[in-house]
Amino acid sequence: MGIQDLIISPFYFFILLIVAFVIRPLVTNSATKSYFIIGLLAKIVGAISLGLIYQFYYQGGDTFTFHTHGSRLIWQAFMDHPFLAVKMWLNSGGEFQGDIFKYTSNIWLYRDEASYFVIKIASFFDILTGSTYSATALFFAAFAFSGHWALFSTFQRLYPDQTKYLAIACLFVPSVIFWGSGILKDSITLSALCWMTYALFQITVWKSNPLRNIFLLVFFGWILFSIKIYILLCFLAATSIFLYSKFSSQINSALLRTFLKPFLMVLFLGLGYIVLQQISQSDSRYALDKIAHTAMVTAHDIRYGWGARDGDNSGYT
């Protein structure tokens, strides 16, 4: 981050703030209105704080790998010739090609398809911000906030007498503000998960605008599939149980409910298993017969990985 951040970022900050004030009446009620702007500001503070900590304390790290050594190269390609950037956006990563090689060869995470997907998202914002780190981070914060607000609105509608506590849980948990607002995978995946939960409740509980909400489920499901497939697998497993519980509880007759419960269990849990199996085939690490082994390997890596061995106390159980 440098002088460019001090010039461009304030402009986009005020633009986002104006947009927030415009849409607030459309997405709030009398009980939630007071949390909207402050919730957005909290995400913005989290996004900027993340960048400052990584630059001045860690002096590098994931967020700059995604941006400075990632999306900025796509932005540079766009500046040289938009066709090259389009080609990089359409590329899923991993394979080097002649006319974009000079850009992709300098993207540190180009061979990691999930990370490259995040880099492509950041590059779209870079086109608007001139590849200004903090300004692009503002857009990540706004996107992250949109999902958290959708989740908060969903739960607040279910439990209106718990608005204050739901706002704290959904919008103001400090660790989520810090790690879930800036240019990182988690900002995108957590927001996508929130949006999918919102869409699921809109369809099943309030039966509202099914086409739009099915689109939201598919779109944000695709984002999770592209970045962290295991989050999607967890969501689908939970959804199967949720649908079974919901539809079985709606049967008023105790006798009929007892008779239909096994059928509903086979229907929802069986379909959920089939969908999980089909999705997990795209990544052998998350095949249902290997996922326990993958979890064990991951747990070992985060406990005894490079950071822990180098003595910086980053390992954890």
Helix-strand pattern: HHHHHHHHHHHHHHH
In total, how many domains does the architecture comprise? 1
Distance between the termini: 33 Å
Report low-confidence residues grouped into runs of 5 or more. Answer: none
Specify Rg, calculated over alpha carbons: 22 Å
Number of strands: 0
Residue fraction in strands: under 5%
Estimate the global geometry from the Cα principal axes: globular
The average pLDDT is 89
Question: How is the biggest beta sheet arranged?
Answer: none
Number of helices: 15
Q: How would you characterize this protein structure?
A:
- With 317 residues, this protein is mostly helical.
- The protein has one domain.
- It is built from 15 helices and no strands.
- Helix 1 runs antiparallel to helix 2 and helix 2 runs antiparallel to helix 7.
- It is globular, with a radius of gyration of 22 Å.
